[in-house]
Amino acid sequence: xxxxxxxxxxxxxxxxxxxxxxxxxxxxxxxxxxxxxxxxxxxxxxxxxxxxxxxxxxxxxxxxxxxxxxxxxxxxxxxxxxxxxxxxxxxxxxxxxxxxxxxxxxxxxxxxxxxxxxxxxxxxxxxxxxxxxxxxxxxxxxxxxxxxxxxxxxxxxxxxxxxxxxxxxxxxxxxxxxxxxxxxxxxxxxxxxxxxxxxxxxxxxxxxxxxxxxxxxxxxxxxxxxx
Length: 227
Hints:
Oligomer: single chain
Shape: globular
Number of helices: 9
Radius of gyration: 17 Å
């Protein structure tokens, strides 16, 4: 089946979560790195919990809650307003330096490009515009449209539905192995951005393609027979 759509995860795939570090350090001082690590350790598992419990809350709210909890772990209590302001930094994360080049290459091959993210529609719009990537995407697909987080199948279903194609004509590109596993179980093709990490086969599932960096993605997709 010919691939027609490439859908990218946003956080940690196109955009560097490390860009949140300066804001966290400014708020927490010496404990900033520990708070950031605690935040990242909470955010995704909490989104799974919310989906399993049927208690969806928009991604910025989940991020603020995770930051507050990580702060408490280090003995610092944030007000709700401070946590929300700090979480708003997710809307201005830097794009990885090779992101635009990879998108331009794929677009030139006649592929439709999308973002498929746990974020909100408004948040994704701000994020891709701030990162200078907005013009590259035909669609921005956010979890708030279905009120569930990845790896719920309703999230992955948005990509083929948005473009009127079969699931197997979409490649989900992610730097998260659990995201690759979720997409594959729904029926999407998958590509993993390794960034120095070994393939770990979450749930025993191998990605269809592996690229070290985004710049390597077009060639990795070609070698895998997806282009």
